[in-house]
Design brief:
The chain has about 280 residues and is of the alpha/beta class. It contains 7 helices and 14 strands. The chain folds into 2 domains: about 80 residues, Alpha-Beta Plaits (2-Layer Sandwich); about 150 residues, Vaccinia Virus protein VP39 (Rossmann fold), CATH 3.40.50. The chain is about 30% helix and about 30% strand.
């Protein structure tokens, strides 16, 4: 059966920071692919996944700090792999970790991750993924049991294994992300990553030394009780997917669950924060 897609052409002012936020929120709402333009972004979603209330979940559209206009149209079937290959560029984080596609030349770096993201979120181009990669690079992971919650492409789980973590659970609610994470883990010869399709309900009875959750503010707040219950005393929690102005809200919720703020990274208007669970 031929897939029918809707194309949304967003014009965003101010463009650079607004476009990044918009792409992240559209991805969470169910949009599958994005092409950045000079004026904003063109986004695609399957017609079967669209409903007239879907954009109500995209908070930036009602944020008075941005002026966002859009048009939409139905399009013919698209070769997504071809579109992705035309627009995906390799990235380098702190001159230590590269995230690239199989057709990019291999760089001389400590950690070389090869992925085929296709329609999955988490290539390292977005600020949140970039900062989470930095957190993994700058902290100890050897022999730690790790959870990558909302794994997207599994790039964070893959890097954690490269730094010695094992075993690793990678979870995403999206079926495409689930399948893509399995493919990417295999492509990078990972032996200790198990990928699951689902949400935080899968964590009942689980226990981890370290948890990575790069999702969004509302889901993080909703699932914090579960993360805290799964995290061993002294364990580390890395959170991203929220804006600078949301950090105090995240800190307050973490504090309720004996999760102590350590530090955070900032990139444009995004934050990636580290917490440690109080010892009993």
């Amino acid at each position: 059966m031929e897939l029918i897609y809707l194309e949304f052409d967003f014009k965003v002012t101010p463009t650079e920071i607004g476009r990044d936020i918009l792409i992240a929120e559209l991805g969470y709402a169910g949009f599958e692919s994005f092409v950045e333009t000079d004026e904003g972004v063109t986004a695609y979603i399957q017609q079967k996944d669209w409903n007239e209330n879907l954009l109500d979940e995209v908070e930036i559209l009602t944020n008075t700090a941005f002026d966002i206009q859009y048009t939409q149209k139905e399009i013919e079937q698209v070769n997504w792999n071809e579109e992705w290959e035309k627009n995906f560029e390799p990235i380098l984080v702190d001159n230590r970790c590269s995230v690239r596609a199989p057709f990019h030349p291999k760089p001389d770096v400590e950690f070389d991750i090869v992925i085929e993201p296709k329609m999955s979120f988490g290539t390292g181009h977005h600020e949140t993924t970039h900062m989470m990669i930095q957190h993994i690079l700058n902290n100890e992971w050897n022999c730690k049991k790790v959870l990558d919650m909302g794994c997207g492409t599994a790039v964070l789980a893959i890097l954690a294994e490269m730094k010695g973590a094992k075993p690793i659970d990678a979870i995403d609610i999206d079926n495409w992300c689930y399948l893509n994470s399995i493919e990417n883990a295999e492509r990078n010869h990972c032996k200790h990553i198990t990928v699951y399709e689902g949400d935080a309900t899968l964590l009942n009875g689980k226990s981890y030394d370290t948890i990575i959750a790069n999702i969004n503010r509302n889901i993080l707040l909703n699932d914090m009780t579960t993360y805290a219950a799964c995290l061993k005393p002294g364990g580390e929690l890395y959170l991203s997917g929220f804006y600078t102005e949301d950090l105090e809200i995240i800190k307050a919720e973490c504090n309720k669950h004996k999760l102590q703020f350590v530090d955070n990274l900032k990139r444009n208007n995004w934050v990636a924060a580290k917490f440690i669970k109080f010892e009993p």
